[in-house]
Amino acid sequence: LAQLGATTVNPMVRWCGGADFFRPPLPLAGEEVEEHGYDGDYLADFVDACHQRGIRVIANLYLDWERVPGRPINASAPALVNEPGEGEKGSTYPRAERVCPLDEGVQQHNLDLVSALLDRYPRLDGVTLDDNFEFQNHPCRCQTCWSRFRAYCRASGQDEGAPGVRDGFWQAQVKAFVRQVRARCAARQKPLGAWRELAAAGDDLSQEALDFHGAMGYAFPPVATLAGPHMPPGKHAVKLLWGMDRRPQDILAETTEAVHAGGAAVGYWISFDRVDGDSSNWGYGVRNPDPGEASLAPGTLDAIAQSFARVEQDWADYYRENLLSGDTRFVLLSANLTARSLTLQIQNTGQRVRQRVVGPVDLGPLSPAGWAE
Questions:
Q1: DSSP 8-state class, residue 26
Q2: When comparing pLDDT for 41 and 332, which is higher?
Q3: Quick check: helix, strand or coil at residue 101?
Q4: 30 — alpha (psi -120 to 50), left (phi > 0) or beta?
Q5: Are 304 and 251 in contact (CB under 8 A)?
Q6: Bridge-based pairing state of the strands 126-129 and 97-98
Q7: What is the pLDDT of residues 82-119, one digit of tens each?
Q8: Residues 6+ away with beta carbon under 8 Å from 242
Q9: Which residues contact 209 (CB under 8 A, 6 or more apart)?
Q10: pLDDT value for 126
Q11: How far apart are CA 268 and CA 280, in angstroms?
């Protein structure tokens, strides 16, 4: 990681159903250690090793919205109820059963999971929730959920059958839950982020309930970063790009594109499956023997290291050149002229706009009437 020039690493520390990727497991019922060959406290040692090299560690984890056979996780929670014909919407484990995400016990378990992680590892620099935190993708139709939905409609004055109302209800439930997670993190002085679809950046959940937004700017084939995400001042968006099966020249190009799209930070999803002595990737595995599995292409690590080494200069050059040339993707959020300085707050919107001044402008006697408008 240090050789790559990484400043932050976001390791997956836990999978759904209590599968902890470190030893010892979290002190919660049902947590078990996935098999690995490290006998010590792996996560604590990893955090220390990263901090010694100036690398922050943001732990990434999956939450539990299922009942897993053989583990006492969500064992007494009511099952998720689908609408007729809706069918099962995919489980993480074989034979696992989805449970009602609004059940108080289920939500309490997931909140306790975040607290236990941060209490056991106080030197972590923050937490990200992986994409299964958005339980609105698996809405429940049990009687309890229907009662809450009707109460939501009455309180908001909306028709139960109106288009988009049900989606709005579930999005509100997710936002309320994430705010509780954020409160647990804030009580321990840790920021909370989440990995989300690239297009979800501008919604209320990212802007109001998260400290930073992780944008999954990848897919098969890899998707670059021409659009969003853009967060309010004081909050940041991290662009995560796909680093597997990529040509080195594509990695260099996508890093530059992520900078130009306004990302506050750029990272790559990569996986080291084994050490095989191949010099094309510093001795790490370059080919996954399992058919259909992603691999680390030759030259990948060199390309990532090269792109990370130049990314801040790329950012400075791009903003300087385009501010001077008047790129219409940039808008003026505020301006303040004093006897000693001119302070400008500028945002890259990621798309060309007509209105270039969107905030207050105070240029004193130089400011003509109506300029701020």
A1: P
A2: 41
A3: coil
A4: left
A5: yes
A6: unpaired
A7: 865 454 444 455 567 899 999 999 999 999 999 999 99
A8: 217, 218, 219, 222, 268, 269
A9: 175, 178, 179, 182
A10: 97
A11: 18
